Amino acid sequence: MRFGIDVPNYGKFGDPQLLADLACESEAAGWDGFFVWDHLHGGGQSLVTDPWIALAAIAVRTEHIRFGPMVTPLPRRRPSKLARETVALDHLSGGRLILGVGIGSQSDREFGGFGDERDPRVRGELLDEGLAVLMGLWTGEEFSYEGSHHRVDPITFKPPPLQQPRIPIWVAGKWPNRKPIRRAVAWDGVFPIASGAGLNSMMSPEAMGEVIAYVRSQRTSDGPFDFVHGGVMTGDLDTNTAVARDYADVGVTWWLEHVYVSGASIPKLRSLIRRGPPSLD
Q: pLDDT, tens digit, for every residue of 125-150?
């Protein structure tokens, strides 16, 4: 199992310099990944920073840690612009980007509030078409597309990503809804979220095991595939190691530590990061 830090792009984290600093500290402490949310609004008068600017800073400030948006709501983004951004970040980082995608928050302020699509069903269609466009543009070969929501006239996007056959794509979705999990099967990883769960909730090992069994029953490829869990480790090293092992035993490949949940000060969060992830060796 690999371990990553997962932080919002608003509130106390609404500063790209801070996010880049925390990513550097995470890398130095032995974490395997550092991931940033993609929100337009954090509620109230909360500070918000652009995650893609922060990810660029993280790319140039770190050397080996994996990073990316977790997750970007592709239905409110232009796939052609995202294709350019992701390839640029992939090259800037030497091939370390992971692209997390989903249909986006149910909060209307980030969709209808800005004139974007409200209907989750339509947003699902936009997500599928957006992924198809991304894949076509990433090839570096001539590509065209005609869908219900997106059109691309024949064009060649160069350069292609450094990572081949593509930048890894993790798809988020609410469990036990099957449709978003089936969508993830076609890509490189799944990030399930318990339906109705708040920030303090975690998928249990048993629930993650159900997701993993379902994905494996749907997959037709035996290539690499990540099962991603987001949670909070609150115990001592031995306790945290035991908790992580329970998830590793059912097949989880990544643990994303939600450092924002506790509401702790930045110094306390830095302390959490600097003590590093548990070791399952």
A: 999 999 999 999 999 999 999 999 99
Whether the predicted pLDDT of 46 surpasses 90: no
Q: For residue 226, with 0-12 CB atoms within 10 Å meaning exposed, 13-18 middle and 19 or more buried, which class applies?
A: middle
- Residue 37 lies inside a defined structural domain of this protein: yes
Strand 66-69 relative to strand 142-146, pairing: unpaired
Distance CA 105, CA 33 (A): 23
What does the pLDDT read at residue 281?
78
Average pLDDT, the chain: 92
Residue 106 carries which DSSP code?
S
Amino acid at 108: D
Tell me: cis bond preceding 176? Omega within 30 of 0 counts: yes
Domain that holds residue 270: 2-274
State what percent of residues in the chain have pLDDT above 90. Answer: 77
Domain count, the chain: 1
Q: Which of 190, 157, 192 is nearest to 87 (CA)?
A: 157
Give residue 228's identity as a one-letter amino acid code: V
Cross-strand pairs, 6: 35, 258
Which pair of structure tokens corresponds to residue 209?
A: 């095991």
Give 237's pLDDT tier (boundaries 50, 70, 90): confident
Catalogue the long-range contacts made by 270-276 (C-beta closer than 8 Å, 24 or more residues apart). 270/22, 270/25, 273/5, 273/22, 273/25, 273/26, 273/29, 273/31, 274/25, 274/28, 274/29, 275/29, 275/237, 276/29, 276/30, 276/31
User: Does residue 249 lie in a domain region?
Assistant: yes
Measured distance CA(126)–CA(122) in Å, rounded: 6
In a domain, 118, yes or no: yes
Residue 280 inside a domain? The answer is no
Dist. CA 257–CA 243, nearest whole Å: 12
Q: DSSP secondary-structure letter at 97?
A: B
